[in-house]
Each structure stands twice: as C-alpha cells, then as structure tokens.
Amino acid sequence: MTQSTLAPAASPEAAHLTAEASLYRLAAVLLSYPLAETQQALEDGRLYAALAPAWQTLTGETWPALAPSASLDDLEVGYMATFVHGRRGKPRVPLVANAYEALLAGESPGSYMLNVQAFYRHFGLQAAQGDEGHTDEPDHLVTMLEFCALLCHLEARALADDQDASPYRRARRDFIARHLAPLLHAVKASYTDAADHGLDATLAHLIDVLPEWANRQRAALEAQAGPCPRPGSKAAEASANQAMWD
Q: What is the pLDDT of residues 167-189, one digit of tens each?
C-alpha cells in the first residue's frame, strides 16, 4: 500500500484528520517487520515525538514515554517471537485476519480476502507484486492500517476542494467495523493470552490501546455518516457493492 501525506492542517477538522492519518501510518510502521530506521527512531525519540501529539489530539490523553528495545537485534527477536514464530509453525500472535477463525465467521479465507480486497479495488489500489520486493497480504494488519490512512487523506483532500467527503467516511466506517476493529481486538486477545516474548514496549502499548481507539473512530464516523449497515439489510448490500462509497 502507498502511504500518503496530508497537507498542513487548515482547520480543526483537518488537524484531526491529519492526526488520524499519522496514527494509522505510525502504527503501520511499528507493526511492520523491524528495520534499522525503526530502531533508530525509537531510540532518538522521533517516533514518540510523532505519536504523542497525534494521540493527544485524538484522545486528549498522554502517550507514555516508553523505553525502546536495547538494540535492533532485540527489536527483531521480540517481533519474530511474537508475530512470526510459535508452535507448529503458527505465530503466537498472528497479524493476518484469516488466522482467526472467529473473524472468518463461516467464510472461507479466500472469500474473506475478496471482501477485503473489494475495498482496495474500489479506491484504485493494487497489491504489491513479488517483483516489487514484497507481496502485500490484503488482510494483514499493516495493510489495513495503511488503507485507513489513505482514506483519511482522500477525505481531507475532498474537504480542501469543497467536495463531498461522506463516501470516504462511510468507507472507513465500514472497513473499521468489518475488518480493522475485529482484527485489532483479536490481536490484543491473542497477545494477552501469549506469554511475554520480549516485544518492544511501544508495540505492546499499541496493541493494547488501538482496539478501543478503533471503536471510538467507528462511533465518530457513524455520528458523521450514519450507522454502519446491519448484515443482511439493503444498506449493507449497497455497501457490499460499494454503491455507498461513490
């Protein structure tokens, strides 16, 4: 997924969208496979300096100053032990939705994946291919966070151009309700059940606070764009066909 940068905030609404997009992007960076740049940004406080004001704007709460992993090796080991390795070849805490049977709700993994990809395709996004250095997993938490950051950007651009921003709000509302929030809650529950395997403190805190924040995001979007359609309703069918996002 391509990440987009918002223009400087020109209003309280734009400032809020900028903070939302920043939190989505920063969470995606932190929950991606650790890089030397990530460890450096944790050590020198740049990630904290970006996270803290965004979190304050969005929640009115203080983001804690947490000690970084002692080294890149420690960051990688904690990440791998938590999100990659586990028993019988399965991660202790999967970051992909299809690993959680409850999230599939009776669907096959392929069918679930198609429903996730429908959101991406509607907004002209295409998963990365192998020759681009990696292959996106549509139901990976990082991909979902990046997509929400993009929807924030599109909403902000629509507002700046005096255009209707409601399609982007409805799409983000539906995506959070159907995919992002359930996955965040599943990841948190899985992490809570797993023993501590040295995960970086900032990543651990993200896992703890993001699910409830996503719930609040959904509620705020419902206040702006109406409630999320109930499964089986005509509105839900329209949403499933992307008619509500045009």
A: 999 999 999 999 999 999 999 99
State the DSSP code for 140.
Answer: B
Encode pLDDT of 22-57 as tens digits. 999 999 999 999 999 999 999 999 999 999 999 999
Question: Sign of the CA dihedral 98, 183, 149, 152?
Answer: positive
Characterize 86-115 residue by residue with b for buried, 16 or more Cβ atoms within 10 angstroms of its Cβ, and e for exposed.
eeeeebbbbbbbbbbeebbeeeeeeebbee
CA 52 to mean position of chain CA atoms: 17
Q: Give me the domains of the chain, ranges plus CATH numbers.
A: 12-62+69-245 (1.10.3480.10)
pTM for the full predicted model = 0.87
Nearest to 31 by CA among 85, 65, 82, 98: 82
Phi, psi of 140 (to 5 degrees): -75, 145
Classify residue 234 by burial, with Cβ atoms within 10 Å: 0-12, 13-18, 19+.
exposed
